[in-house]
Design brief:
By secondary structure, the chain is α/β, with parallel strands linked by helices. The protein is built from five helices and five strands. 38% of the residues lie in helices and 18% in strands. Helix 1 runs parallel beside helix 5. The longest helix has 13 residues.
Length: 131
């Protein structure tokens, strides 16, 4: 049963999250990768996140660029730990995504790693799983 739910907002984000998949695979941690947008498919994304615990997931990794709503959106719908990965896309090269991921409102915690640092997201997920 997969332990880590990984969500990215579009197919074009898959190469950016690939380093996390490699780290998790190397550590023997099972995961599922889904493409689901907080903006374009909010109902589908909400259903995916809300059902994560019942499916056995223990950690969520959410990667997004630009406004980076996906990590905060996910964190608002689950009590599982959510790790946000801001992607370097757009005019600000990911700075907007970094700020959007780190600056979610109180009560909606998102652990945030550096821009395009999917490896650290996976390593953090592994540490969380070891607790």
């Amino acid at each position: 049963m997969p332990e880590v739910l990984i969500i990215v907002g579009s197919d074009s984000d898959k190469p950016r999250i690939e380093p996390a998949l490699e780290v998790l695979s190397k550590a023997g941690i099972s995961y599922e990768l889904h493409v689901s947008s907080a903006h374009r498919q909010p109902d589908q994304t909400a259903e995916l996140v809300k059902g994560a615990r019942a499916k056995g997931f223990k950690v969520v990794i959410a990667g997004a660029g630009l406004s980076a709503a996906l990590p905060g959106f996910a964190a608002s719908l689950t009590d599982l730990p959510v790790i946000g990965v801001p992607f370097a896309v757009g005019a600000l090269n990911g700075l907007d995504a970094l700020l959007a991921t780190a600056q979610v409102p109180p009560g909606v915690p998102v652990a945030t790693v550096g821009i395009d640092n999917a490896k650290n997201a996976a390593q953090l997920a592994i540490r969380i799983l070891k607790i």
